[in-house]
Amino acid sequence: MANDNNSRSFGEDFKHRVKAVKTTRWIRFAVVAAIFIAWVAWLGSWWVLIFLLLLFDIYITGYIPFTWWKKSDNKVVKSVMSWVDAIVYALILVYFVFTFIGQNYQIPSSSLEKSLLVGDYLWVNKTAYGPRVPMTPIHFPLVQNTLPVINTKSYTEWPKWKYRRLKGLGNVERGDIVVFNFPAGDTVTTKVTNPDYYTLVSMLGRFAVHNNKEQFGDVIYRPVDRRENYVKRAVGLPGERLKIVDDVIYIDGKPMAQPENVQFNYFFQMRDGVMSEHDWDELGISVDDRNIVPVAPGELRNVAMNGFLVNDDGSVPTIYVSPLTPAMIEKLEANPRTTRIMKVPATEQTPLFPEGVSDSWTRADYGELWIPQKGKSIKLDDYTWKIYNRCIRNYEGHDDAYIKDGTVYIDGKPAKTYTFAMDYYFMMGDNRDNSADSRYWGFVPEDHIVGKPWRVLVSFDKDKSLLNGGVRWERVLKPANPDK
């Protein structure tokens, strides 16, 4: 048979191989080819069709010996390679699904409680806004940026592809909960991730962060799609003017309705000074949010003036502070043991965005800011430079942009205006007083948008054991955004 194959011309051998293929394999190839062609059409890069030849060889002609191990007489080789083959196929499938369809995502913080809870595992739909073509196409599909155990990068920085988004089912709308890459995550310290690098520099100075590797580790850069995933609610859209007055968001001068589960921090006190485990569970307050306010003897006058109970002997029933939704406040007000509920005043320890403009702002009284829109221009001066310089330099790639003597230079040339190349969004958490969001690190560029949470796949309560309420069965397959 080998001699026969060697004696045939390529054309004769090709015809022989094609004729020998069973009908069922032709059907499998036709299905795979149709899916591949549809994907190429969606991708919009028709040169990729050249890989159809590879699929034809895999299913029909078999010139490339991908399955050489199946002909081996060594049982160990066959066993090992069958596992390798299955794993490779699985990883390729996972890569394409996670890149172009959707992926799972875990809620790590309480910034969106009670809409989404710590311990929720979500399915994020990437087709909602259109999946991004990978900017770092060679990466391990099951981790974001760092391989566990060996603690090395899970991606290569070559090749790098420019930002491009495929056609999706729609655009980001106000009120959408959105997963995106953390914009301020372009530069990170390997040992300290919270607070982020830019907050550390603002608090401690660049020299202290870069020259203390023992505490902060190395300072490294991450490409857009390898930055940490965040999830927040889109409250401001491109081209809008946003302002916050007494915790109410105003868009273009009009107040926006609050999400049903919006939370703010409140002081509250029970007459007997006791919150039992049952009381906390009834309100739905997690262990991490069950905080006590220490009261020094010299503060008794202020405590009484704010309406909190002070006993005749000078003792003060415990004053608690927790994030509360309107529904939780109603429950507390209906409890005859409750003596006082008071909103915590907004004071800032972390600088707000943008520095140099927001000095008198708080998270409760913030702005006004115009949100950049693709194709729209701004006048460049000292004020607008403070607000939009990061968009121009870091997000839109004008590394050689700076201001000198009141004149802005972009790519080495003086510029009086700038036209934005991308749309931007203003993102906030529903847990308003405990959310690191756009009020602190600024706008989210469109190339950072990952997708839209669709459903809660499963939810685990870290405060309880698996056999004692640790699985929140009532949240399984629940819509990820109950407000829409």
TrEMBL record:
Source domain of life: Bacteria
Protein name: Signal peptidase I
Keywords: Hydrolase, Membrane, Protease, Transmembrane, Transmembrane helix
Primary site of residence: membrane
SUPFAM superfamilies: LexA/Signal peptidase (SSF51306)
Designated gene of the protein: lepB
Bilayer topology: Single-pass type II membrane protein
Enzyme Commission code(s) on record: 3.4.21.89
Pfam families: Peptidase_S26
NCBIfam families linked: sigpep_I_bact
Record-linked InterPro entries: LexA/Signal_pep-like_sf, Pept_S26A_signal_pept_1, Pept_S26A_signal_pept_1_CS, Pept_S26A_signal_pept_1_Lys-AS, Peptidase_S26
Subcellular location: Membrane
Catalytic activity from the UniProt record: Cleavage of hydrophobic, N-terminal signal or leader sequences from secreted and periplasmic proteins
Chain ranges passing through the membrane: 26-42, 48-68, 80-101
GO molecular function terms noted in the UniProt entry: signal peptidase activity
Upper taxonomic lineage: Bacteria, Pseudomonadati, Bacteroidota, Bacteroidia, Bacteroidales
UniProt family annotation: Belongs to the peptidase S26 family.
Segments forming domain Peptidase S26: 81-261, 423-452
